[in-house]
Amino acid sequence: MIQKDIIYGNIELDGIYEEIVKSQDFSRLQDVVQTAFNSIEYPELEQETRYEHSIGVYYLMCRTLNSLERKLSAYGLRLSKEEKEMAKLAALLHDIGHGVNSHLLEEITGVSHEQRGIDIIKDPTTQIHQIIRKHYGENFVEKLTEFMDCIYGNGEVTETIELRDDNTIPLKGLLASLISHNIDLDRIDYLMRESTYTGLGTLTNYTELINGFECILAGNQIMVGIPQEKKFFLEATILERTRNYSEIYFCNSDFTGNYAFTQLLLELRKHPEEVLDTIPEAIRKFLTQEKADFTSQEYMQLTTTPIEEAIKLIARTTQNEKIRYLCNYRESAKNDYQVLYNGRSEEYIRKLLKQVIPNFPEDSHCIFSQERTILPYKKTKYGSTNIITKAGIQKFEDLPKSVSLKPIKRSVIAINLELLRFELGISKEEFQNRYMDTLKDIIENQSKPVQDFELKYLLTEGNIYADDMMDFMTQKYAKVDEALYMFTDCYYDYTEDFSLLEQGKALRIRHGHTQYQGKQTREYKSKRITYKTYEEGGETTYTNRVKQEEIGNSTQLKDYREFLASIGLAEELENTLKVNGYRKLITIMVNEQPIDISFCVASYQNCIYEMSGVARTIEIKPRDNQIIGRVLLLQIKKELETAFPGLQSAITNANIYEIGMVDSYDKYKKGYIISPDAVEFERAHPKAAHKLNGIVRELKGKRKMVYVERTPPAEQLIEQYRKAQTPVPEGVEL
Q1: What is the dihedral angle through the alpha carbons of 628, 630, 632, 634, rounded to the nearest 10 degrees?
Q2: I need a surface site. Which of 6, 61, 62, 112 has the fewest CB within 10 A?
């Protein structure tokens, strides 16, 4: 028979291989999608099956054996017919134990697909067992399953290298490594196959890799090695592996799809009566029993179509609204699970939801988090990939490389509000009225990236007014939303060295209230602690900070011990600046992208030097920190600075903590206020005072706060007031 393949073209199978492929046991793999829930994100993958992949690995094994045998013949050696047949059959049958939804089935049944495959081959009732026994006898079946157990299980290849009478030598270790290794034929095929189907493009050159395999002596075994000059073909495959795991195998829909399907199974196990008696017994066991035992014949019934038909039948017949919803798990995985991107923990989100929903279930399944590790270079029982160099055989990982072999973490946290509604047991209307606005706001905030990227102006000139700038922007662009925000911030630092101020970091506790559409909103986040770290990039035009936040019920630093510990700060922090602020926020649409503009008036007091001040700022940032929004900031910047001459000199990348500390300290040093406590602080902490003086001096230029220098000393200002016969401002000593 001829099998048409998306990668290799026509693959010819005859004899025992044609019989196996045409058997019912093997044909069932046409109904087992290769990548399961990845097809939600990449619909093209629905066409890819374990059937075509298995035949592809068989094809690669045939080509590899031919290549190796040509090279062995130069030494008067050859492969034994029995071992070649074992290798080809192991390649063809390596995934025969797969069932519906890929590796999730292994977790559900508690048995690996590799072990299932061995069991199917050993089972005398299966067609595959009978075909192999017919061609090679029962003893060969035993040898084949032992060989596969060496590859996937706990068995080991123990043969020593001894020349046989027919000029063959034991090569099971070598052949096994072609099926299970860092760069084995299984991995080569599925990497190229998924790269082709998704359109990402394959990086692997299978022809060069296969032709590059050499037989080398390693201890008492012959193993596969790759010449150093072909090492970059190996590196390309490792790079493709890293990319595919990141972009395909561990995509968001794989996390949410697996979780959504698991939720359906959990619910059906609570209500097994919902699974009708007309559904085949093997599928009933799969849907209703945890770690159910299956015979090989039962297990092979667990393919995509009968499972999907059973679930559709349950959805049509059930009176249970939650089960009906869960039966549509692929749609919910795609549309209802909202992935949160800001790096907060599942525990934190649960705490946040409990603040909003008093009866939020402790064991709620509406939110989940998972983490997986991408291993670019995966060590196996057959050791490292051998590189043949002029200096001898070396491990690939010990040589200079153009790709990284470091593991990469891929994590997802997602929430499903519809599942939460079912858990609360309320109608859609009640859920909408009571919780939806606040929950959407929480999700929106938790979905934002942790990085702030904004354009900021510090308005120090009397002839530039925020209202005029806002009017200008709303006349030019459509205003789509607005809100008011009032807040009190307490900033903390280490007063022995002011290290946070020095590094452009800011730690604050905020108590604030948002007014939106005439009413107070976001009560759940009225009190919170925030830590921002400045990202130094040489660009002083924009503010670029990473923000970490913890929402709580307190404005006391001691109540945020866990958060402080998580960001590596100690509790010896002291309140150094207090800020009262008013912020008006509007959202405009620029080239169909939402841009937030806020005008903030903040009055502050230095808690050490008891000096006060006021800062007026305009902050402009793209919604959700999207790249296209960053580009639009350049357009807005040009328009504003053209319309308001002199605005360019007001641009800054300082935060309010830096502005308040620099301005208030500078005024103190110029004699605007004389505080006994401040004098005592400088006397008791001369090193800290000296350090602060140096930090302020550097920040004036570094953060473009040179306007501070224009504030005259108190004596000069007093003289000006006397000449003008104007009352001296409160706080200035005469």
Answers
A1: -140
A2: 6
β-strand partners of 618: 457, 599
Residues 6+ apart with CB under 8 A from 629: 593, 594, 595, 621, 622, 623
Which residues lie below 8 Å from residue 578, measured CB to CB, with a gap of 6+?
488, 489, 490, 491, 604, 605, 607
470-488 b/e (C-beta count within 10 Å ≥ 16 → b): beebeeebeeeebbebebe
**Residue 506 phi, psi (nearest 5):** -145, 130
**Interhelix angle 686-702/676-684, nearest 10 degrees:** 100
Q: Residue for token digits 């604050």?
A: 508
The one-letter amino acid code at 101 reads N
Q: Please tell me what DSSP assigns to residue 28.
A: G
pLDDT of residue 135: 96
Cα distances (Å, whole numbers) of residue 729 to 479, 579, 670, 713: 39, 20, 15, 14
Q: What is the pLDDT of residue 538?
A: 47
Token representation of residue 292: 């159910």
Average pLDDT over the chain, rounded to an integer: 88
User: DSSP labels for 520-538?
Assistant: EE-GGGSEEEEEEEE---S
How many CB atoms are located within 10 Å of the residue 373 CB?
Answer: 11
Q: What is the pLDDT at residue 534?
A: 77
Tell me the per-residue pLDDT of 385-423, one tens digit each, with 9 for 90 and over: 888 998 888 888 899 999 999 999 999 999 999 999 999
Terminal Cα distance for the chain, rounded: 104
CA distance 377 to 242: 9
Quick check: 298 and 120 in contact, CB under 8 A? Answer: no
Query: How many angstroms separate the Cα of 72 from the Cα of each of 60, 67, 212?
Result: 18, 9, 13
Three-class SS state of 201: coil
Residues 159/172, Cβ–Cβ less than 8 Å: yes
φ, ψ of residue 157 in degrees (nearest 5):
-85, 120
Q: In whole angstroms, what is the distance from residue 687 CA to residue 47 CA? A: 70
Rounded Cα gap, residues 723 and 728, in angstroms: 11
Q: Is the CB of residue 226 less than 8 Å from the CB of residue 213? A: yes
State the Cα–Cα distance between residues 379 and 398, nearest whole angstrom. Answer: 13
| Pairwise CA distance, residues 587 & 593, whole Å | 10
Q: Which residue positions in the chain have pLDDT lower than 50?
A: 538, 734
Instruction: Find all residues with CB under 8 Å of 61, minimum gap 6, and list them.
Output: 87, 88, 91, 92, 178, 179, 185
Instruction: State how far the Cα of 241 lies from the Cα of 231, in Å rounded to an integer.
Output: 15
Instruction: Note the pLDDT tens digit of each residue in 310-340.
Output: 999 999 999 999 999 999 999 999 999 999 8
List, as one string, the DSSP characters of 50-109.
HHHHHHHHHHHHHHHHHHHHHHHHTTT-B--HHHHHHHHHHHHTTTTT--TTTTHHHHHH
